[in-house]
Amino acid sequence: MKVLSVFHSARASFFLHDFIIFFITFYVHKLESAPFTVTGPDYPVTAIVGEDIVLPCHLSPRMSAKNMEVRWFQSEFSSFVHLYQHGKDQYEQQMPEYHGRTELLQAGITDGNVALRIANIRPSDEGQYHCLVQDGVFYEEAVLELKVAASGSAPHISVEDYQEGGIRLVCRSSGWYPEPEVLWRDPSGQHLPSLSGTNSQEVNELFEIENSIIITENSHKNVSCVVRNTHTNHQKESTLFYISDAFFPMTNPWMVALWVILVGLAGFIGLTIYLFKIKDSLSLSPANVTLDPDTAHPQLVQSEDQKSVRRRETWQDLPNNPERFEYERCVLGCEGFTSGRHYWEVEVGGGEYWAVGVARESVKRKGEIIFETQEGIWAVGHWGSQYLAVTSPRSPLVLKWVPRRIRVFLNYEVGQVAFFDADRGVLIFAFPPASFAGERIRPWFWVWDTESQLRLCPRDTG
Fold first, then answer.
1. Is the distance from CB of 136 to CB of 109 less than 8 angstroms?
2. Which phi and psi angles does 104 have, rounded to 5°?
3. Which of 45, 210, 302, 367 has a CA that sits 20 to 30 A from residue 455's CA?
């Protein structure tokens, strides 16, 4: 029995020795017969949000990977982004966030190309990716970095309020990734210090920015807001070309009145002279605007004094003359301007769909009209639940108060159209300067719903 036991022990030792030799021989054979390296780019791959991206990866030297295992993963081997195994894609245990979004490009797999396509890129896709290829017991991997970028909307500059002796401008833009860089520049391209900035990440993982700056009367009046993507260096820029002296707090009547009280009666005469100089330098002409019935849409009804307008459901039997608006519920003012500075005020209470502003004499009257400066209309108004300026695209207006009266300001020579809250003297919106090219500019009004009514205020309210 002992002899038999020794025989079996010796035999087991012999087989174990042979197995180890066989395994080493097999492994060395694998290294000799199928050695390869896995290669990927040594630079970050940048993808755009919402688009598709191909992550490059291939075997070197070139050989078929059709019967190999290809595993794409991020930080954990078992949680895979994509798995190719037994000659086909395996999706059973794929990371949920990649379901339906990945594809191994098999067109070049016989040449060792094992690139991965990821569809509809998201900000959360950013990071390191491992491309691991295994043939039997032999495997190699490459690591590459994916950066995700999104360039958002063109920045919008709005004039918010008076602050620290100047006007506070706010630059807003959304849809950026990663968190962008925001710069203010003067006309020479020099950077201007910003007052404050807040960046917030939205539900869709993209960033929304808001950055402000104070512009004083003696500082630059042409300013640009630049928003730059730090991954791609792609940037978008908007410029507020000109801010008239009339916009600054010095010309605000309420601040002037406060100044009068502070300086007292001793300085009254000197201050009065000063105010007259300001008024003379501004050359403001309060316009006595009335509505032109020959231009009014047949559903618009004007008051007897041609100072107010509203819409009715019924159509009036009016001649379809060339001047009349046929589709849009618009009406022009009788007055037109080819020079000078002018303003008028409009009560805008009630209703959800209305707008006030100015239009070229040649503005389209028949058919549907696009409300924007390219069509010869400069206006602000209320659409449903928000206030907008009729830029392209529309510019939302962030207002601290609901305006009861809007002052329309026109500087013909500069090509400036601006809108104030007449009760508070606060600028609502200023359009970039335009070229009127000698064409007559007329007051313009739009009323869409039957609840809205626009009324021109008497001249002495300014």
1. no
2. -80, 125
3. 367
Per the CB < 8 A criterion, the answer to whether 188 and 107 are in contact is: no
Q: CB 177: neighbour CB atoms within 10 A?
A: 26
pLDDT at residue 104, as a whole number: 95
Q: Which residues of 393-419 are buried (b: 16+ CB within 10 A; e: fewer)?
A: eebebebeeebebbbbbbbbeebbbbb
User: Of 355, 351, 365, 416, whose CA–CA distance to 390 is shortest?
Assistant: 355
What is the DSSP pairing of strand 138-149 with strand 45-48?
Answer: parallel
Grade residue 141 by pLDDT with cuts at 50, 70 and 90.
very high
Side chain identity, residue 180: P
Give the separation between CA 425 and CA 403, rounded to whole angstroms: 11
pLDDT of residue 270: 39
**How far is residue 76's CA from residue 303's CA, in Å, rounded to a whole number?**
75
Instruction: Tell me the helix, strand and coil percentages in the chain, rounded to 5.
Output: 20, 40, 40
The burial class, CB within 10 Å (0-12 / 13-18 / 19+), for 141 is: middle
Tokens of 269: 């005469």
Amino acid sitting at position 135: D
Q: What is the pLDDT of residues 40-84, one digit of tens each?
A: 999 999 999 999 999 999 999 999 999 999 999 998 888 899 999
Stated as kind and residue range, the H or E segment containing 182 is strand 181-185
pLDDT for the residue 243:
56
Task: Look up residue 381 and give its two tokens.
Answer: 């108004």
Per-residue confidence (pLDDT) for residue 279, from 0 to 100: 38
Chain centroid, CA 58 distance in Å: 39
Question: For the purposes of burial, counting CB atoms within 10 Å of the CB of 118, is it exposed (0-12), middle (13-18) or buried (19 or more)?
Answer: buried
Instruction: Please say if the pLDDT value at position 339 is more than 70.
Output: yes
Whether omega before 249 lies within 30 degrees of 0, making that bond cis, reads no
Grade residue 221 by pLDDT with cuts at 50, 70 and 90. Answer: low
Contacts for 17-25: CB closer than 8 Å, 24+ residues apart: none
Distances from the Cα of 256 to the Cα of 74, 161, 260, angstroms: 65, 17, 6
Coil/strand/helix, residue 154: coil
The H or E element spanning position 23 is helix 2-33
Closest CA to 420 of 179, 178, 234, 159: 159
